[in-house]
Amino acid sequence: MAFLDVQHVTKRFGGLTAVADVSFQMEQGEIVGLIGPNGAGKTTLFNLIAGTFPFDEGRIVFDGEPLNGLKPYHVCRRGIARTFQITRPFLEMTCYENVVVGFIGRDGFTGETPERRRRAEEILKLVGLDEFLHTQARHLNLINKKKLEIARALATRPKLILLDEVLGGLNTGEMVQALDLIRAIRDRFGVTVLWIEHVMGALMQVVERLLVLDGGRLICQGDPQTVVRDPRVIEAYLGEADD
Ligand SMILES: Nc1ncnc2c1ncn2[C@@H]1O[C@H](COP(=O)(O)OP(=O)(O)OP(=O)(O)O)[C@@H](O)[C@H]1O
């Protein structure tokens, strides 16, 4: 049985079908990229997996259990975390406090314990924010805000993390740091990664498989080198040769 099994999922907003009969599977420990032109339905698909919106048709099974109808906090407790394209830290809180909020999201409020403190420090070290433990999030630059976004997600002890455009706005050196971090999420924490990204060159260095959405439909999937040469994918990005 697949770790994540998305079966014929459809989501409509009024007359617009944002996600149309999408099916794919992921195995535990994979890093998979989700690409497609603007408006292809990528973020909507994340929202459906994360329980932000209900879907109209289909079924999503995660780690052997259906997710249909679950609210986001229940999906989180099942082990799915997400990050947002525009980072959403609590700006007045320190990095440490932001991570503790992630613990509360997963376990409820059970107060600070030495074990929680150790875990928060471990997560902030992994993402490279150990020197900013007691810095308010509003003082962080963009790359560090993105690292904190990932730390907050890791604090919920996910088995699957949904990353939404982590690389946007980063310079080359910062991208290298971000790619190392994404590899570490999988290698150190064993977390499976589904990742929306527009920066293709960087994405291709890390992902083992690509899924391509266009107009809400999954038009292609497979190993990255084959997928980017697929005529359907080229057409989706560039339009027909006559256009
Ligand atoms: N809450 C909503 N209500 C109505 N329409 C929506 C809603 N969310 C998304 N859409 C529409 O669904 C379609 C898919 O949007 P979505 O944001 O999922 O695409 P995307 O692939 O993530 O695009 P981008 O790469 O630009 O972020 C778009 O036409 C969008 O306008």
Automatic annotation (TrEMBL):
UniProt keyword annotation of Nucleotidyltransferase present: no
InterPro entries from the UniProt entry: AAA+_ATPase, ABC_AA/LPS_Transport, ABC_transporter-like_ATP-bd, BCA_ABC_TP_C, P-loop_NTPase
GO BP terms in the entry: D-alanine transmembrane transport; L-alanine transport; L-isoleucine import across plasma membrane; L-valine import across plasma membrane
GO cellular component, one term: plasma membrane
One Pfam family per UniProt: ABC_tran
Segments forming domain ABC transporter: 4-240
Alphabetized GO MF terms: ATP binding; ATP hydrolysis activity; L-isoleucine transmembrane transporter activity; L-phenylalanine transmembrane transporter activity; L-valine transmembrane transporter activity
Coiled-coil region: none
Keywords tagged on the record: ATP-binding, Nucleotide-binding, Transport
UniProt protein name: Amino acid/amide ABC transporter ATP-binding protein 1, HAAT family (TC 3.A.1.4.-)
Organism, scientific name: Desulfacinum infernum DSM 9756
